[in-house]
Structure formats: C-alpha cells, structure tokens
Write a structure and sequence with these properties.
By secondary structure, the protein is an alpha+beta fold. Helix content is about 40%, strand content about 20%. The strands form six sheets. It has a ten-stranded mixed beta sheet with strand order 18-38-37-36-19-31-35-34-32-33, sandwiched between helices. A nine-stranded antiparallel beta sheet has the order 21-20-30-29-28-27-26-25-24, sandwiched between helices. The longest helix is centred in the C-terminal third of the chain and has 39 residues, at about 870-905.
C-alpha cells in the first residue's frame, strides 16, 4: 500500500510513493511504516531486565527489533511518532528514530514545505524525518506519509526546470540544503565492531569460548578466540573499505561553478549542491557529481560506469515543452551523476535534479550497500538445516546429562558438559565454510577478466536454465560495413549504389553525411560506430566551432552552429557540393527508434531537416506518396539476408521557421522518403560456438534485440539458435482499437504471404507430431499487445519464443521478469545502455564492457564476446557443488565429533584439549581448504547440480553416513575393550582428566580416519569440478603414519596411549578402510539414483517449476500453435468496444 492524501490522519503512514522508473535505478521497495511512542515505565523495566540478564534482553531486542518496540512502546499515528517500525516486502523489520530539525519560518515558502514542516501549530516550524539506508524520508502532512525527500522535486515540469536557469539565491540554496540529503558518512569502527560482535554467529562463538574456558580447554579456547578476533578484524576492514569506496563513488566531491539569481557565478563544493542549482559545465568537461538536466549547449558524456556502454553519448538541451520531467523519458537530455562529461560546447548549462544517494548512480550503489535478499533455495535450506542440527544438539545434551548424572560430578560441571555438546553439533565455522567455494570462484573469474560485485550470485549461475542475448555488439560485431545505398521515391527504388560517394549531389548524400551525433575529441571523431562508418563512406569531413569563436555562425547566416560537414573538393568529376551546418539535433531514442537534425547551407539558406531510423518507423512518418510501393518487399529481401537496414528521409523547412526553438514533433512529421542504407553486420565467430555449447548443455538461448525481426531471425540461424532443419513461426498481435478487437495470429511468413500453403506443408511434414522443432519470433509491438490482451497465451509463447525483435529497453526488462515468473533462472548478456534494466532484473546479468567493474550488472566481462557465459555457468556450478560438499562435510564433521564425545562420555572420559584443537584447526580446516580449491570442469554437462539441502538424497546420505560412522567408532571401542592387554581407565576421574587411556586413543584414531574419509566421499568431481583426491590421499598417508608409528613428542602432546600391538593398529586401519568402502559405495549408489525407487511408492508429482509443466503440456498439444487462425482474447466482448 502507499500513502495518499487524506483529510483525517491515518493510523499508519507509508514511505515515499514509488519514484519514476528510470533506466539505471533499482525499484523502490514499498515499506509498511508503523508509529510508536516510548512508554517511560516500560523502558525502565526493560533496562532493569537487561541488567539482570547481563545484556541478553538487549541482544534479543537487537535480533528481533519488532519485539523490542512492542515491549517498550505504544502504537500511535506516524505524524506524532518518536519511533518507527519499518517492514519491507520481504518481511524484515527495522527500527528507526524520528529526528527533528528547526527551520526558520521564512524558509517554508512553498505549500509542500509548509505541509512538511508546520506540525502541531508550533511557533518554530520543525522538519520531521528519519534516515534509512542512506536515504532521508520527511513527513508530509499533505500526503499523510513519510516520503523520500526527492518527492519535493519529482513533480517538476520542463517549464519548472527552465525557471531555475537563472540560479538560486544563497538563501534559497541554504533552505533547500536543510531538506536535501546530507553527506553519507561511513560508520566508525566502534559501531561496525559492535554490529559484528552482536551477530548471532559471533555471540555463539563468545558463548562457546566461555564454556570451553570453564571446562579447562584453555588452548582450544584461546586459539578460537584469536581466530575469531582476526576474522572480525578482517571483516571490519573489508566492510569499511568497501563502504568507503562505494560512498565515495556515490558522493563525488569536487568544485563546481553555479549561477546565482543575482547573476554572479560562485564556485562551491559539490557536497553543497541542491536540486534547483544551476551548474555551468566547463568546455573541458568534468566528472559529474549529481544528476542534472541540460538546458543549453551540448555535452559528450561517457556513461560506461552506469550502462557498461563504452561509446560516448551526445546530450542535448531539454525541449522547453509543457509536461512533467522524467529522467527516463528525457535521458538524452539528462546528465547522470558519476558519468564523465568529456567535453561541452555552446555554453552548457544544467540544473541539478538529484544529489547523493538520490542520483542514478547513488541508488545503484545503495542497492549494493543494502542488497535485497537473494531468493535462492540453497541459502534458505542452510538455515533450516542449522535448526535441525540444533535439535540433534538438544537430544545429545539430554543424553549426556542423563549419562553423566550417574557419576559423582558436580552439578555445574554436568551443566557445562551438557552445553558443550551444543558447541560441537552446531559447527561455528559452517557459515564461513559454505562461502569458501564462492571466494575461490570469484578469484578465478577475476583472473579470466570477469568481475563480480555480488558474490552470492555466483552460486545462482550454477542453476541458470536459460540465457538471453542482445544482438548488436554481443552476438554480432559492433562495427558495421556499408554494403550499399538504395535511393527511393514514390516511383520506386533505384539500383543499389555500393559506394555512397558515387551518389549524385542531393538530399540523400547530405542526409548520410549530416544525420548523426558524432563529435570531435582532440581532433578525432567520436560516436556510434554505425554513424562513424556512415560518415566515412561519404568522404565528408566534420568540423566543429572552437570555444566562443563565431566564425562558423557568421558563415551560416548567424545561426548557432553545432557542427559543419564539408564535402571533398571533387567528387569523382561531379560538381562541388556545398558545406552543410547542423544547427539543431534531436538524438537517437530507442523508444522513438529514430533521430533527426536540422541543417542550413552557407548564408543560412536552404533549411532542411534529415531523419534517420528504423525503416518501419520512418515509413510511418513519411508522406505516403513518397514511399515506394515495393518498400515492404525490398526491406524484406535485405533483412532476411541478415543486413542491418536504416531508412532516411528529409523535410524542407519554411524560411521563417525559428530553427533554434523548433520542436521535434514538427521536424519529424510529413517527411519525404529518401531511401535505405544497407549495412553488413557479421556474427562473431565465438557466438556460434557458445550457443552450441549451451544447446548441448540443454540451456535455452534467446535473442532480445532492437533490430528488425527478419535480421534477428537471420542472425539466430547464423549463430545456431535456430537450426537449419527448424522452422520459425512469427507471432503477430494487434491491440484493441475503436474499429477492431485485439487479435493474435501465428504464421510462417513475416508479412503472412504464403502462410496458408506453408501451413499445409508444416502439417504434412508433421510439425505437431514432433517431426520438426519450431521457434517463435515476435516484435516489440506484438509483445506489448500479447501482454496486455492475451495474458493466457503469453506463457506458451515464452516457452517457444527464441527471437524478440524491435524490443524497447523497458520491454527487455519485462521479458526477463515474465520468464522468471515461469520459474526460469534467467541470465542476460548485453553491452549497452538499452540492456541495463534487463541486466539488473536477471538472476545473472553479464555486461560486456571495458570497465573493470560496472554497476550496470552483477558481472562485468572485459571480453567483447559471449565466451564468458559458459565460463560463468561452469564456475557457478563448481561453486555450488563446492558449497554443497562443504556444507555436508561440516555437518558430518560435527556429527563425527558429536558421536566421539557421547561415546567417551559413556566411558567417563573425553577428548583432550589439544585433541580437539588438532582435529578442528589442523585436520578439518586443511581438508575444508583443499575441498574448496578445485577448479571447474572443462565442459558443460546437461544436468544442473542440485540446490536443495533438504532433498531426499541429501538427507538420506547424511543419515546413512552418520549411522555407518557411529557403527565404526563403536566397533573400534568394542575391539579395543576385547583385547587381552586392555587396561580400563581410572573411573575415579572423569572427562579429560583421566587421559591418556585406551578408549580415547582408539576412538581418536578411527574418528581421525573418518574426517578424511568423509572429505573424499562428499567431494564431488565430474561433471562439475576437477577431482582433488590426490591431496586428500596425501593427508590420509600422514594419518596412517600418525596411527601406526607416531613420534613420541606428538603422542605425548596429544595425550595418546602407547599401544605396542602392531596387529591391533593394523586392525584399526582395516576397520577404517571398511568404513571408507561402505560410505563411498553408498554415496555412489545415491548419486546414481538408488533412492528413486522410493518415488515409485507414491503418486507421481508434477514438477514444481512452471516451465517444465508447460513444456510437457505443449509437447502433448499437437495443434499448438494454430497457424493462420486469428485468436481473440478469452475475456474480450463486443461491449468492450464501447
């Protein structure tokens, strides 16, 4: 729910409404907000309780903040609350304090601010707010809710922004700074340290250390204490380092020049900037410290840190039109914080719209600092399994108390021994162990040029079931070669001209030379590779005005010149062309699928507008009589051969038109068609290899592009997404109009020609009987209509859809989310700003960028091809299997030690201090390090590794292994007791006080073998990981030596009994070997599905994954999809037209 204006005070308020959805920003999570006030007597009662419980009550409140608030406070409306209880969409609770700040009365001029600050009719206006995750939320009585402070400028219109062009006064700037975001400071080490120590893991460590000290395990307790201290220190250092780095990235501090309302210019620190400040951009550019909208001049900006796109983007002034400003809709006019303005010209002026964590980059970094919980079954099951181990510990504690109570030990000693079982069964190193595989994988990925900013997603890579790919620059080469130009008019198309320099003098040649956003940097042209090739093919030269030089302006009739295109002196014997000046530029927009420029000839004569864009879009803007009748067929011919095709048009402008203020809508209507630019885009050689690898591994590959659908299909066939023997069926959906109902149709030809005959051929070849696999192809317009009017058919289309063409950036993001609804683990690989939203929405987003780490996606690859995708999946599978193995091993290690202690408790003895230390620090730690070190397999197997720890194979494996381990230790004790030379221990003493003895030595020897045995058994190799058994067998050899012929020094140090009988020692080794063989065979049988017979005893269940159920359904539906049969929405009725 969201806060809304209300006459009466609502009982609960909510945080800010969802902000405008911008291409680089994380979605705003809706937070339930409840208000509370302190109750003094409850607070004092809790303080007394905390004192009596030695701080345990406060610790409980820290772990469960909701409980702490309910116990000490009483509910009240948020408008008068002192404490707020926040609850996010994941059910997590947070407690924040409501802060107040005095404002001078004259500062509350606007109605919004007055609503915000003048509460309770106080004499001094107060600003009430709270801070959460680096964001400030202020109380707005008009909305009846706490809102993000950025809501004050979210309703700005374009006209409002132009109103700030003259700058703010110092007084306005100071008053806005009060409500603006303040510099985010890093938490001091004392705060970070207390948070670390209060972590349940470290609290359990402290509890364990105190218990071990009480039980006289001094060496072990001291060792664990120092290791925990080192672990906390390293963790604090890394947290502080990352926090400092990210915050410095979000809040760039530099000096900028701002314009004041008095007309003077002032140099201020970027920390003092507030929304509404007017910033002057220097010609040499700067690293932008805030989000700002450009009102004058042009800026060439490198946005690779946000988008991963290394090609600079040209930013142009915001149109002075009515309507609300949106950074998403006007991103070509918005300068985003953290990006680098390479150069500015024309007196660039920008108005600040957001600062700090409210900028595009700031919010992305906030999402890294405060990540949303990852919904991954492995992590959820790990917590549940710890609870299960806690139950086992409880049973062990009860057993130990019952056994030890029969002896004459003191009650406090009985309590310590009972609680000691808990510290054994719940291994304190378990959380660290399961991240070992991820740490190794992250290091290996970095060596391969793949950088990760979200390590938990590495494990998710191992469960990816489909990958989406952008086309241009990802599957195909970034650069394009001009294949030819085809001029066209109402009379038809002319012959193709391979070299544009052979074109006659006229608007077509001028359009090719002028319709671009290329700029000069250091004398070198910089811009989109396609446009660079286009200009190069004409032979024209780009010239730009330098500084405040007005020479070019005077040459072209006094117009403000952005750039000049000059033709070569002689064009193959033809007459010399005139130079052309660009005086207005409307950059390319993915949503509009076009760009345009306004030009003039020398002296300001002959004003022409040139338009370049997607052929279908440009044809819809042209005068019908100027478009050739063969347009569709000609376009179909080129794109079906894989060519990239752009259309060009022009429009003569009236001599009295004000070119400096002309609107885009006026320029881009009633255009005259000029022709087509045909470019060849080659598929990268790595693309087909990777797609084939994914296909063999049973991973779906999907193409999501903004290009023409036939071009996309051709590339899909070239790279192997669509096989040579597989059919492509096109999906055509139309929305509802005043004259017609929405419709959905499947056909073989893009334009439907020959579809009926093709349908008959398909039926005769047995498409629906499995004789031929088919793929669906759909464009962006049809995808939108499908989502809006045919939601019941959408899952079926997604199941067979392989090519998604003419997709806008927001549609790419929507596609990823719809696929995730079918329970796919979706990967996305792209290289530009258009893919940014989809990269963030995907489970695994990979940005192909030269930047070392981009916040555009969790993974950034320095390679310019998709060869990193199989590497990521292999590393993810390796990491997941390693985490799985280490989790099972740490659980079994605890159960082995648990068994040893209970057996020795029964015999009135226990393991010694250094024996515990040797097992935990020397043996198990080294084994865990070795287990985590193995690299990934060199091939992708069709079977994905399991991710559930609570599945039947895992639980059965742990249970059966535990029984075999118990049997092994009991057998070792029985064999020892049955020897003729056996000497019973001193029963007058208990615990480790009666060491050395034969019972302890035999159990110590066999349990040591079992730690190594389990490491070998649970370490999975093929097909996900390289085997590491050689290192473990070396460690086993060392253990053989320790048991059969130990050095006197080590034997004395570990308090082991001297056993002279070599036959007995060999018998222990044989028992360990038998234990290994049985456990190893059991694990192999479970891996090969021996437990599958148990599934036959119950009714066969459907898969929990929706896409698997749909796949079965479609394979059993011989009539899907119905070719050339128009389908209507199920809910649609004729009444709906009214």
């Amino acid at each position: 729910s969201t806060g809304s204006p209300a006459q009466e005070e609502p009982p609960t308020g909510l945080c800010s409404p969802s902000p405008k959805k911008e291409p680089h920003r994380k979605p705003q999570t809706h937070m339930d907000v409840q208000g509370f006030k302190w109750v003094r007597w409850r607070v004092w009662l809790c303080r007394i309780g905390a004192l009596l419980s030695l701080g345990l009550l406060l610790m409980l409140f820290h772990w469960n903040p909701r409980l702490g608030v309910l116990v000490r406070c009483v509910s009240c409306p948020p408008a008068i609350a002192e404490i707020l209880l926040l609850r996010d969409s994941f059910g997590h609770h947070y407690v924040v304090e409501v802060l107040t700040e005095e404002l001078e009365g004259s500062e509350a001029d606007s109605s919004d601010w007055r609503d915000t600050v003048q509460l309770h009719k106080e004499q001094v206006p107060m600003l009430r707010y709270y801070l959460f995750e680096g964001m400030r939320y202020i109380w707005m009585a008009r909305k009846g809710a706490f809102c993000r402070v950025s809501v004050l400028n979210e309703e700005w219109t374009c006209a409002d922004l132009y109103g700030y062009r003259e700058g703010l006064s110092r007084r306005e700037q100071d008053s806005r700074y009060v409500t603006s975001v303040r510099p985010a400071h890093c938490s001091p080490f004392s705060v970070l340290g207390s948070l670390q120590v209060l972590n349940p893991f470290y609290v359990f460590q402290v509890f364990s250390i105190v218990l071990w000290l009480a039980d006289k395990y001094y060496y072990y307790a001291a060792c664990i204490f120092f290791i925990s201290l080192i672990s906390i220190s390293v963790s604090l250092y890394e947290i502080r380092k990352q926090s400092t780095m990210l915050r410095s990235m979000a809040q760039l501090i530099t000096n900028v020049t701002v314009r004041r309302s008095s007309g003077e210019e002032d140099s201020v620190s970027s920390v003092e900037l507030v929304p509404g400040d007017c910033v002057l951009i220097p010609q040499e550019g700067l690293l932008l410290p805030c989000d700002a909208v450009l009102l004058a001049g042009e800026c060439m900006v490198n946005e690779s840190i946000l988008t991963g796109e290394s090609i600079p983007v040209m930013k142009t002034p915001l149109p002075a039109a009515a309507g609300r400003y949106s950074a998403e809709a006007q991103q070509r006019h918005t300068l985003f914080g953290g990006t680098l303005c390479i150069q500015a010209r024309g007196g660039a002026i920008a108005v600040v719209t957001s600062t700090g964590f409210y900028t595009a980059k700031g919010e992305l970094i906030s999402s890294i600092l405060y990540p949303q919980p990852i919904n991954f079954r492995f992590y959820q099951d790990a917590m549940k399994f710890l609870l299960f181990l806690g139950g086992v510990a409880l049973c062990g504690t009860i057993y130990s108390i019952v056994i030890l109570s029969r002896t004459n030990i003191m009650w406090w000693e009985l309590l310590i021994r009972g609680l000691d079982i808990v510290t054994i069964v719940v291994p304190p190193a378990l959380p660290a162990a399961i991240t070992t595989g991820t740490i190794y994988a992250q290091r290996r990925l970095k060596e391969q040029g793949v950088y990760c900013i979200s390590p938990p997603r590495i494990n998710i890579c191992g469960k990816v079931s489909m990958f989406c790919f952008d086309k241009t620059g990802t599957l195909t080469e970034e650069g394009l070669d001009v294949w030819g130009v085809v001029e066209g008019s109402g009379a038809g198309f002319s012959e193709i001209v391979p070299d544009p320099r052979f074109l006659p003098q006229g608007p077509m040649l001028s359009a090719l030379a002028c319709c671009h956003s290329v700029a000069l940097l250091g004398g070198q042209p910089l811009g989109d590779p396609l446009e660079l090739k286009m200009i190069e093919s004409t032979g024209w030269e780009l010239e730009e005005p330098s500084g405040d030089d007005k020479t070019l302006d005077l040459e072209f009739g006094g117009h403000r010149v952005l750039a000049v295109m000059r033709p070569p002196f002689v064009v193959y014997g033809a007459s010399i062309n005139q130079a052309v000046a660009l005086v207005q530029r409307f950059p390319f927009s993915p949503s509009l699928q076009r760009m345009s420029v306004v030009t003039v000839a020398p002296g300001g004569k002959s004003s022409l507008a040139f338009i370049k864009g997607a052929p279908e879009m440009l044809a819809s803007l042209c005068q019908k009589e100027s478009v050739p009748a063969q347009f569709s067929n000609t376009l179909h011919t080129f794109v079906s051969q894989g060519f990239r095709v752009l259309a060009l048009g022009y429009k003569p402008l009236h001599g009295q038109t004000d070119l400096s203020s002309i609107k885009r809508e006026e320029v881009e209507r009633d255009v005259q068609f000029l022709g087509l630019l045909v470019m060849k885009n080659l598929v990268k050689k790595e693309s087909a290899e990777v797609i084939d690898t994914l296909r063999l591994a049973h991973l779906r590959s999907v193409m999501v592009t903004g290009d023409n659908i036939l071009t996309a299909v051709n590339v899909a066939q070239a790279c192997g997404m669509v096989g040579t023997d597989e059919r492509v069926i096109f999906v055509h959906a139309t929305p509802q109009t005043d004259q017609s109902l929405p419709s959905l149709r499947f056909h073989l030809g893009e334009e439907g020609a020959g579809a009926i005959q093709g349908s008959e051929d398909i039926h005769s070849q047995g498409l629906y009987q499995g004789g031929s696999k088919y793929h669906l192809a759909i464009n962006g317009m049809s995808f939108s209509a499908l989502c809006d009017y045919f939601p019941e058919y959408l899952p079926k289309v997604l199941m067979r859809g392989t090519v998604y063409a003419r997709m806008a950036p927001e549609q790419k993001t929507q596609l990823v989310k719809e696929l995730q609804k079918l329970n796919y683990r979706v990967g996305m690989c792209g290289d530009g700003a258009n893919d940014c939203g989809a990269l963030r929405a995907a489970d695994v987003g990979v940005s192909l960028s030269e930047a070392e780490a981009s916040v555009a996606s969790p993974f950034t690859s320095k390679s310019d091809n998709i060869s990193c995708v199989p590497l990521l999946i292999r590393e993810g599978r390796c990491s997941l299997v390693t985490s799985f193995s280490l989790f099972k091993y740490m659980a079994l290690y605890s159960l082995i030690q648990f068994t040893s202690v209970l057996i020795l408790y029964t015999e009135k003895t226990n393991l010694g201090d250094l024996q515990f230390l040797f097992f935990d620090m020397v043996l198990v730690t080294l084994l865990a390090i070795v287990m985590g070190k193995g690299g990934p397999s060199t091939e992708l197997h069709p079977q994905r590794p399991p991710a559930s720890l609570l599945s039947l194979p895992v639980l059965a494996s742990l249970t059966l292994h535990t029984l075999l381990l118990i049997l092994g230790q009991v057998s070792a004790l029985v064999i020892t007791v049955s020897q003729d030379w056996f000497v019973p221990l001193n029963s007058t003493m208990s615990g480790a006080n009666n060491l050395p003895n034969l019972e302890d030595t035999s159990v110590f020897a066999l349990s040591g073998y079992q730690y190594i045995i389990m490491a070998v058994v649970v370490t999975k190799g093929y097909p996900y990981k390289k085997p590491l058994h050689c290192l473990i067998f070396i460690q086993r050899g060392v253990w053989y030596w320790l048991v059969l012929a130990p050095m006197p020094f080590i034997r004395k140090l570990l308090k082991l009994y001297v056993i002279p009988d070599m036959n007995f020692k060999m018998l222990l080794v044989a028992l360990a070997a038998l234990n290994f063989i049985t456990c190893f065979l059991l694990e192999v049988l479970i891996d090969h599905g021996i437990l599958n017979c148990l599934y036959l005893l119950r009714r066969r269940k459907q898969s929990k994954k929706q896409y698997k159920r749909l796949d079965v359904l479609l394979s059993e539906s011989p009539s899907w999809p119905p070719l050339d049969e128009p389908l209507a929405p199920i809910q649609c009725t004729v009444i709906g037209l009214s």
